């Protein structure tokens, strides 16, 4: 037995509209949550990019300090102040990255140690170059001294004749 709905009731059913409150919809919340998530992701990405930029800038300044050839007797107040400022900024950077929730634990310290270790290796290479050049100078000095002694002995033997 088939139940049929009369046409006039069908038209009434089709014209009835139900007003929905979009605030109560679970889909509206998801859209807001997605937008909020994307906004937080962009902010986090920008902050992490800022960390990288700051690290690069501070690392460059620190390496410039190490490459400075001013001897300690010639350093003035400004040089010492600049050194202290850069070191202070490096420490502040490491602490800031260490407390950042979006960074792995200890990444500020790791970044600082990495910079220091790279600089130590650079200084080792510089020290090895200086030591090698010193060795060559000693070798050349010994040859020159030997030639000088030979020439001196020849001059003395020529004078005695």
User: Which residues sit in consecutive blocks of at least 5 with pLDDT less than 50?
Assistant: none
Overall mean pLDDT: 85
- What pattern of helices and strands is seen along the backbone? HHHH
Helix content: over 70%
Beta-strand share of residues = under 5%
Question: Helix count, per DSSP?
Answer: 4
Q: Class by helix and strand content?
A: mainly alpha
Largest sheet: none
Instruction: State the total count of DSSP E strands.
Output: 0
- Please tell me the total number of domains: 1
Shape: rod-shaped
Separation of termini?
Answer: 150 Å
- Rg over CA atoms: 39 Å
Oligomer: single chain
Write the layout of secondary structure elements.
Layout: H1 7-15, H2 26-67, H3 77-99, H4 107-160
Tell me what the structure shows.
- The chain is mainly α.
- It has one domain (26-154).
- The protein has helices at residues 7-15, 26-67, 77-99, 107-160.
- Helix 2 (26-67) packs antiparallel against helix 3, helix 2 (26-67) packs parallel to helix 4 (107-160) and helix 3 (77-99) runs antiparallel to helix 4.
- Keywords: Coiled coil.
- Residues 127-161 form a coiled coil.
Summarize this structure as a short list of keywords or feature phrases.
161 residues, 4 helices, 0% strand, mainly alpha, rod-shaped
Q: Summed up, what is this model?
A:
The chain is mainly alpha-helical and 161 residues long.
